[in-house]
């Protein structure tokens, strides 16, 4: 291991560790963090890494390969089938129309038509990483726009494969052997032969997956050696990739297919969790190296051209998406969110552009420009979303609150429910059934519309925004039910509410024990774990089905809940004794372990001595 | 000072004007602990250890409840079954409650006249309360006659005030030890004892 390798690894990892948290902090997502990290350490700023960025990129492209394998794995045919109309409809429309419009745009700019088509295809991709993460962080995954976004992104991810396969057809000149690449069998063959070879290789991968890989995995799994399974998973991916490289085809395509073939096998989840960490770190590396390879001289040389391109691409993508959303019958708000969040160019464009450049379809200069455009459009996403959220939606979409007429004195309900999904809505319905009105805060515009029609008082927007809390009457209300499905947002809300409205009683939904412990640390006492009461109720019913008397089972359940809540309060302060936890999964397991250990002391009938006649029988016999 | 523990069992307290009046009258008595069973244990899941600790800390116990179908609401029976444990309250080594005073303070829709042989309810209140009486005896406690507010549907605001005042007086005297157990037990109702001492006629 030479010192250059160590130095490089040090610089790359440091860039990730420094910039990803900063990017996440300001709401830009990890992909941008990696990109910015790469730009900063690259030759145009600090210059820690120089020309070898390209080499690292080749290495890191393997992260993309792993990602495609995982995408293939997740492509469960039944799931895909259920969403087929949405995926095919919105997906083809989005990619097709975007490509067509961009093709026209670039033809006007004087591109050759293969170059224009290739650019159009590459730029029609959106960023799966950014969008899915943003949706999840904002708790919008389950909304209509969230589902449509998922469908479009899935279709794009799948289409990368045929696009990669078809790109060689666009190359007039034979493939230039890239620096450091092996010569391949197919070199020099015309485009149609390459395509034919591809089909043959595809058939080979599918057959191998069916008849060889699954029995092989079964054999490895029987050995019960975790690291051997991980090694086998990596082996499958690397083997597929190298076979593909050998015949001169995209390794990404091969592994994607291998993934799809294995999606139905019983080892799907194990493969997924074994590969995921490698994918994460290599993909990070890939984005960093993309960052280092962005040619800033080019961008700074003609900033107007770049800005015009970025704006043009984003506008075209936005308009096509808006049309797509319209046809998918999204409501106005949902459509706006959908169109804005998918309007950037995605990480797959980097892959496609580097392939396009290798094929000689596009000049190096234009490839660099396009990479710059892609990176800039990704950087713009958080900004666009912010504009959408603060400027566009409040003005044109569902209003944050319904204006009250002058004679209607502002009613302040005693309860505020933040988050009206499955959990919050049950609370709200129950309160309403008892004549208690609640003010609702929710960020799903479709649901907000519905609730308003039903006569609920609903505020639309981010419940953690102080102005929204204020206008929802947090000053006067007595109880805040924090029922948002995303734990981080929920915790943020409670923190703010406690600081700004100390009179409010906060009643918190918690997903599991770890979250409940965190809330206890923050001084929230009314905590309702989703995983407690319902689970115990199921357990009680299970006892009944096994022949326990119903009341005994019920009593046992009541005692268990009481015991468990007491145990939680005991547990919470001790968690920090050893060290600050970083890995919440491990913490959850440790909590479980503690609980399970002390469960042995539990006596389900601990309060029911008086009903137990065993002691009495004894005494009566003595008396007689 | 004798500390008094009110073991209150009413599943619809918010609708009971008599019990509200009675309890409002004794709220300020520092000797009184108010233990609202239906509020504490809506799921009938009684915290036995807590209850036992409370019992230990008090000298006089009051089972205060409406008279539903000639007895107390279900939670009070649950409380008696679970808290008065064998080996603690009675049975071998069970003398934790020995010598404490206990009585029922109850409200009934029927009047005292209706609770008599030949009356609508055929038996007296004292007869209906025999299980409580014997439970107390079993635990070595001294069972006192009940304090009752009867014919509750017909009570005027003035009547309510009167009964509340009597209840207040009763608990004051019990807490101050201003009574003689033997003479108390000669009466059928603690109300009558109060009347005999002050000479106020039964309303």
Helix content of chain A: 55-70%
Per CATH, the architecture of the largest domain in chain A is Up-down Bundle
CATH topology of chain B: Rossmann fold
Structural class of chain B: alpha/beta
* CATH top level class name of chain B: Alpha Beta
Low-confidence stretches of chain A: 174-183, 404-409, 578-584
Please trace the helix and strand order of chain B, writing H or E for each element.
Answer: EHEHHEHEHHEEHHH
Number of separate helices of chain A: 26
The N- and C-terminal alpha carbons of chain A lie at a distance of 89 Å
Main β-sheet of chain B, in a few words?
6 strands, parallel
Number of strands of chain A: 6
| 3D shape of chain B | globular
Largest interface: A-B, 12 and 14 residues
Q: Kindly report the spatial arrangement of strands forming the biggest sheet of chain A.
A: 3-2-1-4-5-6
Q: Mean of the pLDDT scores of chain B?
A: 93
Number of domains of chain A: 2
- Tell me the β content of chain B: 15-25%
**Number of spatially distinct domains of chain B:** 1
Helix fraction of chain B, binned, reads 25-40%
Overall number of strands of chain B: 6
Mean pLDDT of chain A: 79
Report on the structure:
The complex is a heterodimer of chains A (624) and B (203). Chain A is mainly alpha-helical. Chain A has helices at residues 3-25, 30-41, 53-74, 77-82, 84-108, 113-123, 128-137, 144-170, 191-222, 226-246, 251-262, 268-293, 296-301, 303-327, 332-341, 347-359, 364-396, 422-433, 445-453, 466-471, 487-500, 513-521, 533-545, 550-574, 584-599, 614-623; strands at residues 415-418, 438-442, 457-460, 479-482, 505-510, 526-529. In chain A, strand 2, helix 19 (445-453) and strand 3 form a beta-alpha-beta unit. With 203 residues, chain B is of the alpha/beta class. Chain B is globular, with a radius of gyration of 16 Å. Chain B contains 9 helices and 6 strands; from the N terminus they run E-H-E-H-H-E-H-E-H-H-E-E-H-H-H. Chain B has helices at residues 17-26, 37-40, 48-56, 74-83, 125-128, 130-138, 157-176, 181-184, 190-198; strands at 4-8, 32-36, 60-66, 101-108, 142-143, 147-150. At the A-B interface, helix 24 and helix 26 of A face helix 4 of B.
